User: Which sequence fits this backbone?
């Protein structure tokens, strides 16, 4: 009798563990309900939250709404087969708007934030705004930060580029030259005052687009811009990620960068 | 006693004794206060506002204060919320405050303590932690007495409340300079009774230009005048001032309708007009921000320049005892513009501004002479 009781206990435990495992690793075919995607599909509109005050990514002024992210959102609408409704919200209010359900998605030069992944889900990155190493077009001897030993390096004082240069300074004899802003760094580089510059990618792309004569040789730090969706919208996230992969493959992201920088 | 009984329990008793001995010998504190340090600086008025209130780990508290000392700032402002230390009326838990204060003192830092944050037992339901009714002023006075007694000899500067000229800092009620003055009077008496050497600071007011009758705020200048009208002069030794520069340099001239660093001069003028010009000011919050997208921010190099120039400017203000800029480091990232006020990241990465201010405190003058920047 005792043996039978023990056997039944073992069976019950086994069943519980199996159920738990089944819950954790559901088969790929298992349906997950995404009410947000159902609403977008049903109404034919995706509501995009953005803080339209940050050219070249987004700006809403007398000319109208425009920028890299605006084009990206419109392209996403085409991918999803729905209209795009833009909501202009201050940057600090974007996440609250997403959590409160005022918008379905945030596209707003949004940096990835690992601390918020309990509340929101992030797409793959579509742009990296981190610090980059920039040299003159004809420069061949500098291809990475390791080549900066005994070189003059320009940076915006107090910036993340400055921080990186100070770190490098601890392991090599680079000459750090501080400037007021990234534009001054890149002008100094073009004019030969320094051998290389460390600035953020946005400033570098903007300068190269307007003035030319420089090129990026290394991405030193990462600051990925991503799209945020509610944590309970896995289908929407999947479709956004599929779109980003497609845009990378087709060169659409590159086209956008060339258009806006 | 029979032999089986001894055999059975004797070995267990021995084992227990061994465990007690090991427990008594082995555990040692992982972090110690360490030897007394001294701040080396060319500017004895330099300070920062630390945010150790919610810093749990002792090594982080110690490390933060070591870095403040190494930067060359002898003054720290720190927040000690009433609700944290008196969760039940008359029952105090000073453990965390002791840690902060002992480490700060060991680093040679002078602590200016700000106290407010009403515990739940001292306010009605559905009110915020800044709501304190007049009937509860004595409870706050009791806490001030307990705090000043506890830290006698360790803390000699006490700020009573924070920004009472904002409705949000006054329980979302209309701001009330007279009501605040009554609170200040009670706190002043109780603090002095506990420690006659303590210097009581009237609260730093939020710099703003709101007119009387505004729903959310009242101009700092108007509020201070109303405090004087209510007799506040006798109930504070020093005035705390919040001096944010926004996008203006430290030498930008002050004006009643402008929020800049030199607005502090207008506040001192107002004190003088009320016969209180010999009293000192301490800037307990202030500074510049270098967030790339916030409209009240400046570029990082300007933030460094303005910060160092402001530290230097305060040397000319003989009526200003110290300036503590907001905020040295926070325990975790805020993930918004607030992170761009700091000198050190939550992970203890020193920002360039930290190193430049440190160099200034060691005698470097390039930021004052304009030679720190190439162009």
Assistant:
């Amino acid at each position: 009798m005792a043996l039978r009781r023990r056997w039944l206990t073992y069976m019950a435990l086994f069943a519980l563990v199996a159920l738990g495992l089944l819950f954790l690793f559901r088969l790929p075919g298992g349906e997950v309900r995404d009410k947000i995607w159902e609403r977008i599909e049903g109404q034919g509109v995706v509501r995009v939250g953005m803080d339209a005050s940050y050219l070249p990514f987004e700006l809403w002024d007398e000319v109208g709404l425009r920028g890299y992210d605006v084009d990206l959102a419109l392209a996403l609408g085409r991918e999803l087969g729905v209209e795009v409704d833009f909501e202009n919200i201050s940057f600090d209010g974007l996440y609250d708007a997403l959590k409160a359900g005022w918008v379905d998605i945030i596209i707003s030069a949004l940096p990835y934030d690992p601390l918020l992944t309990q509340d929101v889900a992030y797409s793959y990155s579509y742009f990296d705004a981190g610090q980059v190493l920039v040299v003159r077009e004809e420069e061949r001897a500098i291809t990475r930060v390791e080549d900066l030993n005994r070189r003059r390096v320009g940076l915006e004082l107090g910036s993340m580029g400055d921080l990186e240069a100070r770190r490098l300074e601890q392991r090599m004899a680079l000459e750090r030259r501080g400037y007021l802003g990234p534009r001054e760094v890149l002008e100094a580089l073009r004019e030969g005052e320094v051998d290389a510059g460390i600035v953020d990618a946005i400033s570098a792309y903007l300068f190269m687009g307007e003035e030319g004569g420089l090129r990026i040789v290394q991405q030193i730090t990462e600051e990925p811009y991503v799209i945020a969706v509610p944590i309970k919208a896995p289908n929407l996230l999947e479709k956004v990620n599929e779109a980003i992969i497609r845009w990378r493959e087709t060169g659409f992201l590159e086209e956008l960068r060339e258009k806006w920088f | 006693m029979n032999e089986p009984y001894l055999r059975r329990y004797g070995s267990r008793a021995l084992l227990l004794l061994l465990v007690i001995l090991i427990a008594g010998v082995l555990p040692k504190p992982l972090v110690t206060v360490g030897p007394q340090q001294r701040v080396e600086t060319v500017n004895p008025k330099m300070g920062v506002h630390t945010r150790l209130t919610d810093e749990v780990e002792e090594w982080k508290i110690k490390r933060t204060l070591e870095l403040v000392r190494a930067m060359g700032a002898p003054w720290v402002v720190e927040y000690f919320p009433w609700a944290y230390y008196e969760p039940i009326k008359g029952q105090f838990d000073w453990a965390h405050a002791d840690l902060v204060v002992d480490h700060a003192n060991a680093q040679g830092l002078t602590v200016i303590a700000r106290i407010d944050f009403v515990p739940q037992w001292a306010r009605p339901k559905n009110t915020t932690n800044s709501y304190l009714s007049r009937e509860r002023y004595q409870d706050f006075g009791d806490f001030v007495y307990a705090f000043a007694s506890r830290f006698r000899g360790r803390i000699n500067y006490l700020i009573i409340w924070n920004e009472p000229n904002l409705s949000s800092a006054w329980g979302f009620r209309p701001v009330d300079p007279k009501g605040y003055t009554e609170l200040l009077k009670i706190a002043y008496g109780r603090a002095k009774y506990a420690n006659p050497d303590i210097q009581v600071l009237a609260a730093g007011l939020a710099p703003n230009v709101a007119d009387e009758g505004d729903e959310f705020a009242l101009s700092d200048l108007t509020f201070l005048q109303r405090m004087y009208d209510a007799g506040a002069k006798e109930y504070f030794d020093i005035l705390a001032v919040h001096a944010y520069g926004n996008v203006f340099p430290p030498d930008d001239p002050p004006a009643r309708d402008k929020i800049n660093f030199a607005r502090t001069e207008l506040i001192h003028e107002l004190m003088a007009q009320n016969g209180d010009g010999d009293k000192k000011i301490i800037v307990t919050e202030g500074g510049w921000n270098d967030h790339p997208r916030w409209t009240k921010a400046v570029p990082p190099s300007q933030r460094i320049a303005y910060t160092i120039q402001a530290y230097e400017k305060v040397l000319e203000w003989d009526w200003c005892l110290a300036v503590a800029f907001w905020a040295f480091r926070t325990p975790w990232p805020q993930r918004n513009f607030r992170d761009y006020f700091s000198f050190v990241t939550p992970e203890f990465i020193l920002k360039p501004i930290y190193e430049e201010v440190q160099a200034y405190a060691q005698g470097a003058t390039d930021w004052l002479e304009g030679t720190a920047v190439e162009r």
